[in-house]
Amino acid sequence: MTNRRANFINMVKHLADVPEKNVEREINLTKESPYRQGYHVESESGSLGDPNGFSYFNHQYHLFYQWSPLAFSQTPHYTQHGWKHLVSKNLVDWQDLGAGIESDTVLDKHGTYSGSALPVGDQLFLMYTGNTWTNTESEDDWHRVPYQVGAMMDKDNHVEKWMQPLLTGPLEGYTGHFRDPKIFKKNDEYYAVLGIQRENLTGSALLVKSSDLHDWQIVGEVKAKHEDFGYMWECPDYYELDNHGVLEFCPQGLESQGNKFKNIYQNGYLIGQKMNLKSGEFNCGHFHELDKGFDFYAMQTMRDTKGRKILMAWMGLPEIKYPTEKYHYTGCMIFPRELHVKNGLIVQKPVDEIKDLYQEEYDSELTLDEKLVEIKAEENNRRDIKLELDCSQAYDTVLDLFANEDNTQHLRLIFNHKKQEFIVNRSNCGIAIAETYGVERSCHLNLDQKIIVRILQDTSSAEIFLNDGQDVFSMRVFTAKDNHRIFASSHNGSAKLRAEIHQLRNRR
Amino acid sequence: MTNRRANFINMVKHLADVPEKNVEREINLTKESPYRQGYHVESESGSLGDPNGFSYFNHQYHLFYQWSPLAFSQTPHYTQHGWKHLVSKNLVDWQDLGAGIESDTVLDKHGTYSGSALPVGDQLFLMYTGNTWTNTESEDDWHRVPYQVGAMMDKDNHVEKWMQPLLTGPLEGYTGHFRDPKIFKKNDEYYAVLGIQRENLTGSALLVKSSDLHDWQIVGEVKAKHEDFGYMWECPDYYELDNHGVLEFCPQGLESQGNKFKNIYQNGYLIGQKMNLKSGEFNCGHFHELDKGFDFYAMQTMRDTKGRKILMAWMGLPEIKYPTEKYHYTGCMIFPRELHVKNGLIVQKPVDEIKDLYQEEYDSELTLDEKLVEIKAEENNRRDIKLELDCSQAYDTVLDLFANEDNTQHLRLIFNHKKQEFIVNRSNCGIAIAETYGVERSCHLNLDQKIIVRILQDTSSAEIFLNDGQDVFSMRVFTAKDNHRIFASSHNGSAKLRAEIHQLRNRR
Hints:
2 copies of one chain form a homodimer. By secondary structure, the first copy, chain A, is mainly beta. The first copy, chain A, contains 2 helices and 34 strands. The first copy, chain A, is 4% helix and 48% strand. A 6-stranded antiparallel beta sheet of chain A has the order 23-34-25-30-31-32, with no helix packed on it. A 6-stranded antiparallel beta sheet of chain A has the order 24-33-26-27-28-29, with no helix packed on it. In chain A, strands 4-3-2-1-20 form a 5-stranded mixed beta sheet.
């Protein structure tokens, strides 16, 4: 509790209250980082976390995110927390509008936590969790009081907070862990799902409804097969897609199970019939990991005017130390993904607008064997890589990204035909991250047949899509700038590889 | 097939037929290896594979193993294959008796494959697979004819082979993959289990019986739940222990399943009620991995006169390249383990005779935190390490073995309390081995409570026993000689560690 207390001693309500030179000092240090991304959204300083209020409004995409630009500031340390606000016409180039919401009212004074947005009339309705603590003068007898807060943003991006909380926690039978409202509309009613912790310290999702956005009633917990699953569910998101109901959430407190649930906190979804919004009944199957990589959390979806369901997420995790902290920033977003349902599971692919980033193209067609082959590309890691791989005639095929000249360092992708397994190995790839949670991630993969692999590489990340996004692995990689080579080989037999590599420009 | 053919061009029946200087050249090169084990059995040159004929006879333990002392010889290359023979009074110090069986008859001319031994009267009965090929003049139309061969060894260790095969393959309905007889006696009848491949290319174990060791009848396949499991079962071993029936075997062709079955070939067992030896009916549960480490295969058990069930195994795998090949040898044995049944599962511990190897003892009692602590021991890796670890108050605890001075290289053991998982990570530990099969092995481990860990370290191996041998991980490690340090730390909380380390002498 003492950390929390120390954190709030220097809390300021508005970034504008901090001397400009202190803000700029952070930004200038962050600029020095060799790990700055080319086309992924990241913060210009401090910490970036959950995406919030992801929406389409006023002819543009809006993305907010959990933002503490001074999180790593020192002498003096300032704590300032809120939502960063970005807008985009194409999901690729983003205009930075600075602070979108700040923690400046009695309802959110200790943190403007996560939430969502929905266009209502000619405004954008924002719904988020205001975090507050009572009894803060005590050493360790603090009590968390979460408010679900409403606000309206107009076309000039001016936000008006509602001073009457929509819901106040803790609710009876639950603890103060009650947050992350995701709003949606169906049949002229508004609904939201929120993460909540029961008094018996198990996690759940709560469904609430309203007809006017002011007066909210509790429908009840989402009644899914997996309601007893972890000690807290964060960032739930319910939506309907391709005639299915989907509940995404981030359970905390899952033990590892084989090659599943290896990260400190998890992400995933339940899929089934559409939810009964009167009762919260949700007839669904097992919990599936949405992203099986090392760094992925707090995903949030939106539906755009083209009818696409688009996913955004934090390519990072709470409580994990990243080497960018040395440069006083941490976290980035994934590249936005379009979602569909295929064979009863979510499949993901980068939104087509990525083509706006395309520059030079490099095509290769190779027969692989024991001899290491370098695959031709430009000398930087900003790439959209599309591969067709047939390794059915070899024990395994290895693809090394972020490789140095003699390939002693690399992010290693292993397609093991003999074990019908895909493994990504981050152990030999620059600065170690979260090693105690393992250096490999893996999944079953049928390699008797040709497979399609797509990889979005950036300066310090890789998002790997297997078989049109049936399995996705996202991860950060902090390696030397010169490590931009791609090598491939196969063992105990030969493999065929076609590679189409598009180098990508920086985002604007 | 061409490799096989080339291999037999220079085949010699007896090691004694090879010029002594060629044999010695191999031995001298092997001696130069920095990876030579201190107390684990390994070959003085060439390849060591499956343990064979493990038994107690004539007041001593007998261990044979698959042996090709000239396997890596060059200009000229000789192929000579058979069983090496060792004897021991204490399972710790072994006398090398040289070639035990060689491939010198029509029944075993292309290889004296694996088998077992049983004392009969005042002789030791040996039962093994003689491998032969027909049509060897053709380029690629060879046919495998496996013979199950009997032989008697007297008290002078003289082996007399029986020239009438006990069984001749392929049997009707099966392929030529029919090998590895493990003999046992019950109610005055002799039985053996053998690995066999059905014509539909699935693996099984065949039960056969005899009253006189000469005339063998086929009882039938072992009828277990898991009879459809892989394309071949090698080295089956049936025994009764603590009132259970146990069938150990090495299935080939299993796909990875989460953190299970990661190695190129597997090892494990079925356990249940005692087998019905009239019908082969075996009422048992699921298949369990016996050893979850990187390097373990072809295990074989024996019962000694003290009534102990003792396990021997090859700490290596077929088709995997080891860096010792540079020194023209490969493979070693595990340190023998005593087996018991606990909670319906096999538990394993090093035989007590390891105490014969004990030299200096180092005891430590430490409170671990973020700061790396070195645990005191001698400057060599021959050790029996006993640990008591309480990491219930930390996210995780890390133990690094084979570490260099600044701990940038190590074999890393991770006890992740938050994920209730044990991980051993070999990625940063000298020369890489079988990386395409993954660099981590892991299992579920309840870390809310104190755990007992035992580790047998040798120059180039580690055998890790969790909770009195409920989970065991064996592996080879090829690191620089100076990497003999042990470090520990814990993260996000503190852990308590008691270490009792016995340095071990070399075996004689």
